């Protein structure tokens, strides 16, 4: 490159402003997507119930069985994590000669597994989720209804629904659901190991937040 070209290149870099960071848009909003409320409420009640405290992650897929992961305390204050999956798809479309339309198959008993979790760890999870959801500003927008899987999150009595987020802090927290599911389905002798894994994942998440990396 000639000296003139080098000078011109340097001037160009000086003049051009830095490109702004791409905004993170989360396709979720307060409440249920349109025409999903009865279905969602029925599925949530069947798959572990609705709780005023804690968190519930409800998955409403386009195909296959619905499922829900719940982190909540019982009447005695003991926190539990439970996972439930419908035995057969709840949202059923029928087009036979005797019946045409949609029925909600709520007359079934889903498989539910659960395990206790220390209250300190559970409350820490609730706190991180509450902060992440508040930071995403989802309460100010409506959920979008699209022809794809729906994720509905209920926390401290409030619900947000829509497409599972793919940017920002929420995906990193969503990745920790697998650890909670492992805990729910594990034997008692493995509980301590599961608690440690969840705590370490939260430590790493907190470090990233402190460094502004989420």
Which class of secondary structure composition applies to the elements? alpha+beta
Low-pLDDT runs:
4-22
- Hey, roughly how much beta strand do the residues contain? 15-25%
Helix count, per DSSP?
6
* Mean pLDDT level: 85
| Biggest beta-sheet profile | 7 strands, antiparallel
Query: Total number of β-strand segments?
Result: 9
- In angstroms, what is the radius of gyration? 22 Å
* Rough outline: globular
Helix content estimate: 25-40%
Query: Largest beta sheet: what is the strand line-up?
Result: 1-9-8-2-3-4-7
| C-alpha termini separation | 40 Å
Query: What letter string, H or E per element, gives the SSE order?
Result: HEHEEEEEEHEEHHH
Give a quick rundown of the structure.
The protein is an alpha+beta fold and 214 residues long. The chain is built from 6 helices and 9 strands. It starts with a helix and ends with a helix.
